[in-house]
Amino acid sequence: MNQFRRRSLLAGTAAVAVSAFTTRPATAAAATADGFAAVNALGQNGTTGGVGGPVVTATTAEQFLDYIDTVGAMTIQLQGRIGITSKQGVRPNKTIVGLGTSAVIDGGGLDFYRSYNVIVRNIRFTNAEDDAINVGQNSHHIWIDHNEFVTPVDGAVDIVRGAEYVTVSWNWFNQTDKSMLIGHSDGNASQDRGHLKVTIHHNYFDRSRQRHPRVRFGEPVHVYNNYFRGNSLYGVASTMDAGVLVEGNYFENVPYPIYSGYAESDPGRVVQRNNIFVGSGTPQTLGTVVEPRTYYSYTVDDPASIPSVVPAGVGVGRV
């Protein structure tokens, strides 16, 4: 099924706009992915986004939808508020980056369907009528960095249906409900098992309720140096034989910081080490997990520093 929505404007106004900006330098800071998004795999040399392609600026929804549906590398700068509906497909080799502190995608979200090598940074996602970002259908090498998520109807970030080599870093989940799902359903083992390799670091789960993340089948899912604050339902849930390493995080007023198994889902394996729990419950652990260092190197910050470091660095305007 083709998830990309072709629009007649691509051959007209949008094409003119692309050529008009081909020599314009990016005004947003360049960036280098880390974690699983930086791993050389599946024929992809890390995640570089739109490097080597034209740099364009979208100020309207019409421009934005045509740019994300364009074949080839491109850096798409968002300026101001872009109102869209539903989930809109993003083709491979794109950098989507907000300019300044006022770039907003409102009402809809981004959908990755067999897409790859995409960077999403410095954008405030508000009022998505479904998921704000859905990484699905064997998409890979996606980096979601320095964004803010506010009031999506469903998930803020879902990583499902065989997606892998994804990093979610330095985002502010601002009182979201279903923050992050990894693994589509209990019955989707054939597609998800052996995939769903995800790094989640330096995010602020700020009074968000659940799924930070909820994982099925994925291994390893590496959750490190995040700030969990006032998460009323639970923090991390490893289910359906997933393998999750929870490392160097700070849990504050989280009654159920780590679950093995949740609701109707069977238990998953989960290892916790060097975390701090303040006003929080006792974490559940089970079994062993493949070490992320098998795939990439990383440095864990002192977890005691997380309540100051993470809120100061997450979200928009910090890149």
Automatic annotation (TrEMBL):
SUPFAM superfamilies cross-referenced by the UniProt entry: Pectin lyase-like
Pectate lyase domain boundaries: 51-257
Localisation per UniProt entry: Secreted
Keywords assigned: Carbohydrate metabolism, Lyase, Polysaccharide degradation, Secreted, Signal
Main localisation: secreted
Signal peptide: 1-28
Family the entry assigns: Belongs to the polysaccharide lyase 1 family.
Protein name as it appears in the record: Pectate trisaccharide-lyase
